[in-house]
Design brief:
Shape: elongated
Largest sheet: 7 strands, antiparallel
Oligomer: single chain
Strand content: 15-25%
CATH topology of the domain at 68-242: Protein Transport Mog1p, Chain A
CATH class of the domain at 68-242: Alpha Beta
Number of helices: 5
Helix content: 40-55%
Number of strands: 7
Order of helices and strands: HHEEEHEEEEHH
Strand order of the largest sheet: 1-2-3-7-6-5-4
CATH architecture of the domain at 68-242: 3-Layer(aba) Sandwich
Length: 273
């Protein structure tokens, strides 16, 4: 009777072993399933994280245009367009003056028996904003600049057309010269197409002699056009906001703040005896 008790204990112990193994096996399967889900999630998030982002376009340099009729100095107007009908110029129509604007001047200088000298000058500004789908303002302005040069060279009735780079005017500029006969007179034309940043400036200056007056020389017309074009481009850079001054002011303010902070720290430290 006493010897049967140990034997019974061994039988019960052996019977319990499969139950423990089953429990361990279930626990192992559950863990591997959880790890699988985690791995799948990590793989999915990793794939989403590698999606390339669209490159941002360069911000436009100028966000406004100058007053077109005030873009050229009064002294220059009086010099290039003597006896101008309106010295303040005649503004062209525009639905948005911050994007497109223009102004023109014309005058007839009556010199009596020597005849009369007629002059015309106009200036136009076109500004391009940066656009994610269309490109930066500078790129769009460069494209329009090329189109305006081509358009000017193809002016209807133009004779002896010539084009050459105009140095010292904006980021890039082209001078186009040609002759044109109208109202039984020979007109001499000079057009400067220039680009500064994201703005295209087109200035045309022409003249003719009436009632026996001499036709103006091409060199005089070219000099006048280049002088006025430089002033127009300078007006863009001076009047239109580029944010440069604000950035400099912020930097100066930051420097002053740092100096004040240093002074406060030095005064707060106890002096050594």
């Amino acid at each position: 009777m006493h010897r049967s008790a140990p034997r019974l204990s061994r039988i019960l112990a052996c019977a319990a072993v499969p139950v423990m193994l089953v429990a361990v096996g279930c626990s192992s399967d559950s863990g591997s399933g959880s790890d699988g889900k985690k791995d799948a999630g990590s793989s999915s998030s990793g794939t989403a994280g590698t999606k390339p982002s669209e490159p941002t376009v360069e911000p436009a340099k100028f966000d406004d245009l100058p007053d077109p009729c005030g873009s050229i100095g009064m002294k220059t107007i009086e010099e290039l367009v003597p006896e101008a009908k309106k010295k303040g110029g005649t503004a062209g129509g525009s639905s948005d003056l911050s994007v497109r604007s223009s102004c023109s001047w014309n005058g007839l200088d009556d010199q009596g028996v020597k005849g009369s000298q007629y002059r015309w000058m106009d200036v136009g500004f076109t500004r391009f904003d940066s656009d994610q789908s269309l490109g930066s303002g500078a790129e769009r302005a460069t494209e329009d600049y090329a189109k305006q040069v081509t358009k000017t060279k193809a002016s209807e009735g133009a004779e002896k057309v010539a084009a050459e780079p105009a140095a010292g005017i904006g980021d890039q500029a082209t001078l186009v010269t040609y002759g044109l006969s109208k109202t039984d007179e020979d007109f001499v034309y000079a057009t400067v197409v220039a680009r500064t940043g994201n703005v295209v400036v087109t200035l045309t200056y022409n003249g003719a002699g009436y009632a026996g007056a001499k036709t103006p020389s091409s060199s005089d017309i070219v000099k006048g056009a280049q002088k006025a074009a430089k002033e127009a481009v300078a007006a863009v850079e001076k009047t239109a906001g580029s944010g440069g001054a604000d950035e400099d002011a912020d930097k100066d303010t930051g420097k002053d703040a740092d100096k004040d902070a240093d002074k406060s720290e030095s005064s707060a430290k106890p002096k050594s005896s």
